[in-house]
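Dear support,

We are seeing what looks like truncated structure output for some complexes. This example has three components. We would appreciate it if you could run it in full and send us the complete token output so we can diff it against ours.
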Amino acid sequence: MYLSTMRLSTLIRRWRTHPTDIPLAGTASPAVGEAARRNRGSLQLRHVDAGSCNGCELEIASIFSPVFDAERFGIRLEASPRHVDGLLVTGPVTRNMADPLRKTLDAVPRPRVVVAVGDCARNCGVFAGAYGVEGSVADVVPVDVEISGCPPDPATIITALRGLAGT
Amino acid sequence: MSARPRNDHHCAAGSRRHVTSLLLIATALVGLAASAVGALVTQRLRIQLVSVLTIAACSGGLAVAIEVLRSGRSVVVHTHLLLPLVGFSLDLDRFGALFVAVSAGVAICAMVFRLGYHGHGLSSRTASCVLPLFVTTLLLVPAASSVTTFLFLWELMAIASLLLVLADHRHRSEVAVAAVWYAVMTQAGAAALLVGLVLLSTHAGSQSFSAIADHSAHLPAWVRSTVFVLAVIGFGSKAGMVPLHVWLPRAHPEAPGPVSALMSAAMVNLGVYGIVRLGDGLLGGGPTWWWLMVMALGALSALYGSLHSATSTDLKRLLAYSTTDNVGLMLLGVGASGLFASTGHPALALAALAAALLHMVFHAVFKGSLFLSAGSLQQATGIRDLDRLGGLLGRMPVTGTLFMVGALTIAALPPLCGFVSEWLLLQAMLHGLPSLDPSLAIALPLGVGVLALTGGLTALTFVKAVGIGLLGRARSEPVALAGEVPRSMWIGAGIPAALCLVFGVAPLLVIPAVVEAARTVTASRLPNPFVGGWQVGLSGIHGVLAPGLLAAALTVAVTLVAGIRRALQRSALRSTEAWGCGRELQTARMEYTATSFGEPLSRVFEDVLSPSHDLDISHVAESRYYVEAATFHTSLEDAFERHGFRPAAAALAWWGGLARRVPNGSVHRYLAFGLIALVVVLVVLG
Amino acid sequence: MTAQWPAVSVVAISLLQVMTVALGGPLLVGLMRKVRCRLEGRVGPPIHQPLLDLRKLARRERTRPDQAGWVFSAAPVVLVATTLVVAVTAPLLATDPAFANSTDLFAVVYLLLVGSVAIALAALDTGTSFGGMGASRAMTIGALSEPALLVALLALSVPAHSSNVPIIIARSLAHPAWLATPQRLLALVAFLIVIVAESGRLPVDNPSTHLELTMIHEAMVLEYAGADLALVKLGEGMRLAVLLGLFADLFIPWGIATAPGAGHLALGLVATGAKVAVLGAALAAFEVSVAKLRLFRVPELVAGAFVLAVLAVISALVVA
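Here is the complete output from our reference environment:
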């Protein structure tokens, strides 16, 4: 059987959890307030990498780790844009990803939010003016929330998402 | 010609009987008249006239059958006009009447459907002449009451159906190949039947069925067993039982739509009819091994048929294999019934036989609707290949819905009728289980396992047929341009589809007739083994099925849930492009095909199906790292055909080639042969 | 089934069962997710998180791929409706809900199959490659697990001489020794494997996967949004609850209300709830400790369940 005694003891040890405290956001924009009223403790997002260096991806991956554990606030990433409340976009939008990004946003049921994660998503960061870059996320699709940082640290991301989730 | 009641106790019943006898004769005559009209009238009038006359004949047959089923008084007709010396005798009892009723019902739908069906050479003079003849023989075979009459009608049916399969041979060469397979299998079966029935009648000293039934108990065991085995071979080849099924997946796809429906929903039933009539009726039951053999063949047919239909990509081939599957289920029930009878459980035997017959009736209903609506799809698109169909439910909403109803029924989903008969088959086998008899203890769990496995595979098959064939996007140009078929084809396919629902909700419309038929053929005096009223179940067993209640509960639940969804809805349903990961174009070429749908299954059952794959990659001239074109071909051949019948046919051809060297045209050689033969004869006699 | 139950209590039981299943299904999913998260060292979402998700989804916009027709829209309704019918008739809290006489094990299996078929057809109706892939895989696994389930149920029906669920439960309660017989234990394992396969849990399918190519069930419902998605999720949760509830009643029947009365019913509710919760938690713990099987290893697992079920029937006959 898969469940050996050793693993069982590991599992029981893990039952004690030590998540980091996440501060709540201070003031919220009208769009965020509206989303929070809509979502009331449940927020699903589709992640779109529009041309990121994968730094932001690492941080996004770690917000679901035992340390930060964004899922305890009802926040999840989903595979299908149909299942979500908005997009989590990272990186400057490259020429090849501009249309897929628009298509993905179109696939999300309305009303929806777009979260631009990281400096590149906000203003193209170090990639500004590069030949393959179409522009920032806001140049391609309307953005509701911006999270700054290169990369932003997990607690900052979660704080912003908690604002949207209303938790 | 004389139509005489066998033993009229009182005058009213006698005259009523006279009327039914006359009606049966009239049915046959109108059928023959339709056939003559088909041969004589010009093409413009032909289709309508032939169809109307055939429908009239079928209505007569249906009326007779219903009257017999209702009253239980059989209809007897005897005439010396037709077959010289022996005469032509018909005796329609309740068991035969059930089959007549099914055949007549299917034929009426097929003929209504035929009014709108064109192409496939069905309007030719020969086909118009033969189609009514085929229908008439379908109606008369279950009434035959002597060996010669039966064989005569059986052979006529075989030839008529063969000519109908051949209807389109001028335009497509595959038709001729399919017809050769059909001809060989059906004639081999007929030969086995001929030997078996002649053996039976010589030993019984009479060729009338009733006399044979009276004497059969006193026949030597080897005669009874030989006759039964030959009959299983002969009738099994007609029923499409594995391993004699090879003609079915070839002939059905090539035959015109209404003809495939007639063959699959009505003709194959007669194979089951024959096995039951002979095994239970004329021979009055037999030893355990007979029925274990029938069960084993039924289980094999069910599994093999369902596996092949799950992996077929040709719509009509898929339906043909599913006919083999369903015949297997009927034989499983028939075999279980015989097994119960031979181990001393007559009540269960009756229940199992009735369940098998119920499945026969319901199979005719759903397979009729499936084959007819498949014919509509084929007429509208010209395509049978599922890999090129798709998106037809939107383009042909009526036909698509009819096909879907048939498909959901065959997948045994409640509240449609396929569920009821499969449930009763399961129950009949289940309640034989706590038995100490070892043959029952082994055969029944395996039988239930086979039933369950085929049930799962059938669900997969018809999700594939509907999902790939009717839903999603159109996969080819003709499909994208397809439109609805004429209204008569809706009606033809719509009647059985409606019956799927009606019989599913109220199976009691059919169950009494089926039970009476089963009692008649087994000469059983036991009470009805089923619970009556709106519930279905085996009496003596706690727990029933209430199909009407189930349907009502489902309707209420669906309405409730849909109402809640509507109440919660804040905005209108938005129609968007399907999600394709942000890709540019979503085309039909990205859809799953029937081949890919069935691929996991054909991998799981690789040992049984042994699919062959052929991947051919050509590289560009400059570098072998760049692919110019890749072609992939995958095919699934019938294992019995490839490893059994083809080598056998090759051996026969080889033998024929050898024999052909002997007569080389030289007169001297023939004279020498004559001399040698004379010498041999003299030596042997001397 | 000794005493006639008053009609009022029968209706009350069925209503209570429907509400329990409709609420309990999502809560069961939440509980299993919670257990998983805790065993992974995370706090995890609250147990009622699926209910929060459903509340939000129910009001969101519904979308439909432009190629899809009414089948796509109807499927989630059919999925939930068939499960509701099972919840009304199956003896989950008490042995005599409405229509108990016609609560046949095989009918339950086929009713649940209706929901699976509806979702598979809807997946094909979207005309996407993911939909087809999910439908093909789900139907292949279903085609193999359904017979295992039927035969396992047969092994339970043999000693009770009936495939009627209330009868089986009543007779199991009357003969507790049955529950330890080899055929019960074999059928139990087969039933468990089928539950895992049918409800799309690890190691057959990963319900929380984000990678389309590894999906089975999720791939079929990728196109659903808003209330449709809520119905699909509700249906999944209810199916899992019904399957585990049936499992609990068939193999550990103690606690189910065998007589009318609010006290008995409350006891039944608590007992069934506790049994299902424990089973769900155990399933979740098992999920954490296994990896997903390769797709073509799944049939081996399910075929194993089929063999166990056949063995169960054969041993049932030896014992009988």
